[in-house]
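User: Show me an example of a complex going from sequences to structure tokens.

Assistant: Sure. Here are the input components:
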Amino acid sequence: MNDLLVRNISRSFGGLQALLEVSFDVARGTVHGLIGPNGAGKTTLINILSGVLSPTSGEVIYRDQALHRIPAHRVAGMGVARTFQNIRLFPAMTCLENVLAGHHLTALRPLLPRLLRLPSAGREDRKLMGESCEILARVGLEAKSSHLAKNLSYGERRRLEIARALSFSPKLLLLDEPVAGMRRAEAAEVANLVRSLAGEGMTILLIEHNMSFVMNLCSQITVLNFGRVITTGSPEEVRGHREVIEAYLGSGDHDA
Amino acid sequence: MLEQLAHFYAVYGSVINFIGINALMALSLNVTLAAGMLSLSNAAFAGLGGYAAGILTLHFKMPYVVSLCGGALVAGIVGLLLGLPVLRLRGVFLAMATLAFGEVVRIAAVNLDITGGAEGLTGIPNVTKTWMIYLALAGAAYFMANLRRSRMGWALVSMREDETAAACLGIHITYYKVAAFTVGAMMAGLAGGMYAHLNYLITPRDFGFFVAVDLLIYNIVGGTRVWYGPILGAVLITALPEILRGAGVTAGPIRMGVNGLILLMVILFLPNGLASVFAWVRPAAVKAKTT
Amino acid sequence: MNLLAQQLVNGLFIGSVYGLFAVGYTLVFGVLDILNLAHAAVFTLGGLVALWLVQTAGMSIWLAFPLATLFAGLLGLLLNQVAFAPLRKRADSQFSGLISSIAMAIIFEAVAMGVFGARSVRFPQGTVSVHIWHIAGVTITSLQVGIVLVAALLMVILTLFIQRTRIGKAIRAVAESERAAMLLGVNVNGIIASTFFISSALGGAAGILYGLYFDALAPDMGRSIELKGLAVIILGGMGSIPGAILGGLAFGLSEVLTVAITGTSNLRDAVAFTMLFAILLIRPSGLLGRGKMREA
């Protein structure tokens, strides 16, 4: 069944039409790819889906609820998490703290028990700590849990962003170039992670330029160019699609 | 020994009192700084709280504690009303709006009859004792230390690091900004109320632009990332003139220059403030529990 | 009606000094997105140094003015070197730059107090010969005219400089996008230093004019103008030079008119700051400012 319905989403910035009548569906528990040459409007779309930007027209329905004119923090409240193309970690915090911070929606952390030194506060802290360590282990960063986020390598930072996004147990995960700049082995591990998340019922929409990553991982792919959808289909269908090939001709996007 | 202490207190009592008040005010600024907001209106809130408390005591004959609460409440309400429109602004714009607000408050205090004009409100009974100041300070510090590990504390620090990412984690930015602003305002109002009852009077000059800048300096020098940073900064900068005087330096320009130099050195070389010397300072939530 | 005209004229004169001061502020903000809060201290030192040159070194004001202005420009270079350049790589460079400018302002003011004393001083009699004219019922002194002319001349020179010369174009490029300018081969560090030089020179010049106009100089004279300067650049639009000029004039006029209308100078500043507050809420980009921050 379809979790996420994108219907005729358009967005213009002044005179620039970034997205025009973009429509596609994403099925629950699947990994859906979003590809296209640079400037095709992919990140703009993710910004609209996560509530950072509002569309000029069109709608987005997630699990029967309208998503498109809701502020970002309420979109997150509906179980939607994302990562950022430019990586927006909390640089002065450690990896563990980044993930702990991500628990905002699921951790009560009330002030009064803390002031009164009640044991429930300590219990909750320990529980959160355990959960956060598990999430870090899942992305392979458990050894770096007390390292500052700004000191991580590029690939590690991307993985930390995913970890932080996972911390409030989202149902829909929007990944913006999760393996950019990663070597093949690292990217393959992320692919395994994404596969296992989907296996647990999470719906994942990801933007990527790494073609082998996308083709091997996604069950459906939507191709954007100049803000319009060229096609949506399985990897085989997309690979052989004439317009898709033309759009990419000369753009030099190969697998890493 | 007791004699020496009594003598020390007789000589330095007022400095000790001022250190306590300044530390409390510095903490009040820390609530908003922790969230990355450069709001400079806390001096004005202290003034509002001080005047309100003074007026409650003088004209309405309220008991001390009621006046203090009234002062804090007035400051808090004004903070809430001010915060709602103003907190949309970022960075220097927020700083300027809050500075402008502070100036308007100060000028109002100078021109209104009920505040006693430029001479200020006089004849306020000096009920505040040193232990009261430090009790309030201890309470505020305890509150701040625990705030850091609460949901709100995590939200504020996340907002400071990256607001967009914080919003995408479900943090309601505006709500927390207004909340931090209001809490800070109330704390400042409390400090102002205590100050008003300290030396019989409160004047507009006590809460102007330079006090606002001073509060910022206490926070920067001490460090904004831990609860004891602002206290450290307030203690050092307030006590410094006395220390220098003890060393034979009484000239105004030199004391001023030293202040400026300390601030410069801190921001250039110790950006997390002096507190970062005592602990490898990071949001401390994790450290105590990692065993 | 004559009274109104007189007030307008007075507002124009003080407004042109405000404008000159604000231009320096806005220049640095436009190029670096940083508020240099030491600008007011440079304003003070410029005035005091000019006074010293006239009084102690016996120079004529016509020589002291450019020299003191030059000195102010050098102070700007010092500011950049010590307080801003080391912080530019930091993520929070806007904020830490602000703080270090506050630190430098305190240091400069302490130096001013130490060297020149805390009392208010004035330019000696006869520094500028003053003629008084009465035109259409309005009194104008040659000093006022001179101030406006000098301020206007400096602002015209600056505008031409920014528009026509290579350095000026480089400044505009860096203001637009530092990275792009660097890719185009602009020596960004040098341009930033030049910007500080120009900005502080203008600020110092404003200080000299202010000291002549009000016939008083003190180490803390920068304080009153500091907040007003901020109000002016917000009003005119941060980063816009014509905005700073217009804002300065508007501000000077509103100040003078407020005093005239209310009959007292008490509320003068309150009106100004309320205006500032309202502008920040309604249209933070001011009259002529750019809406967004420049790219890194």
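The lines above are the inputs; the final block is the predicted structure for all three components together. The CA atoms of residues 164 and 226 of chain B lie 23 Å apart.
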